[in-house]
Amino acid sequence: MKKIKPFLFALLTIVFAATVQAQTADEIITKHIEAIGGKEKLSQVKSLYTENSMDVMGNQAPVTEYLLEGKGFKSETDFNGSKIIQCYTDKAGWSINPMAGATDAQPMPAEMYQSGKDQIYIGGALLDYAAKGYKVELAGKEGNDYKLKVTGAGSESMYFIDATSYYITKNISKGEMMGQTVEVVVTYSDHKKTDFGIVLPYTKNIDLGGFAMSSKTNKVEVNKEIDPKIFEASK
Known about the structure:
Shape: globular
Largest sheet: 13 strands, antiparallel
Distance between the termini: 71 Å
CATH class: Mainly Beta
Number of domains: 1
Number of helices: 3
CATH architecture: Clam
CATH topology: outer membrane lipoprotein receptor (LolB), chain A
Strand content: over 45%
Structural class: alpha+beta
């Protein structure tokens, strides 16, 4: 009996620690959701349309993004006369990149799709994460940022959330560049409240392992009518 008690005590300690950690992660997420507008306000967003300017090695490129809640996310980049498209839906992803010799829609690799499909949701993976099939755990702190490890079916990413503002400041995930798997680091800043009442980061810096670019949002339209057909693979 004496041998069993220490084992039970250790087991209960582990269970209790895991429970506290999960609760702490949920508290951070709750504060983050409130900071960007609140769950009720976010639930009223059915679509999001943005116009952005991308700086790639000193070259400017306009980027248009379409998001239809839970259905699809599509970005169109006009770069030196070529239109680069990335599209995620609730089922799969596809892309067109003439600069890589792909002038027709190509199926997106599974790892790339899994790591980016949370873009089809307002609030990303964190809002109602369990219902979307994600697991979240607190992975400590880095400076003033909480680190939340988010895992899904075949995907893993790290979210950094400022402990003061509760805005997302950085996200680290896996992506693909020129057929190679790379670490994608996106830092977010210049958070602003839109006329609709939700907060978005208006500046993004993207590092693809030595290849960097930045994006600034110039226009935001909430609940703009978006045709679901735009998420179908172009022929």
